[in-house]
């Protein structure tokens, strides 16, 4: 899943080397924290959050076969 997120996000940003995904796993949930360069935040979020919503949709659909709830957080 980490590779999927990086594959989606890296072509969108100006600084692909600054794209990092950190994974935190609990008993009932997996949280992916997407970290990008501060100047690329707007590109990842998109107008009215459309790009972020599309990324989350793909990630959630891919992870729906797992027994745990998946969350994607976007930060600097």
Describe the structure.
The chain has 76 residues and is an alpha+beta fold. It has a single domain (2-75), classed as K homology (KH) domain (GMP Synthetase, Chain A, domain 3), CATH 3.30.300.20. It is built from three helices and three strands, in the order H-E-E-H-H-E. Strands 1-2-3 form a three-stranded mixed beta sheet. A hairpin with a 3-residue loop joins strand 1 and strand 2. The model has no long low-confidence stretch (mean pLDDT 93). InterPro entries: KH_dom-like_a/b, KH_sf_prok-type, KhpA. This is RNA-binding protein KhpA.
Largest sheet: 3 strands, mixed
Strand order of the largest sheet: 1-2-3
Number of domains: 1
How is the quaternary structure best described? single chain
CATH topology: GMP Synthetase, Chain A, domain 3
Subunit structure: Forms a complex with KhpB.
Protein name: RNA-binding protein KhpA
Function: A probable RNA chaperone. Forms a complex with KhpB which binds to cellular RNA and controls its expression. Plays a role in peptidoglycan (PG) homeostasis and cell length regulation.
Pfam families: KH_KhpA-B
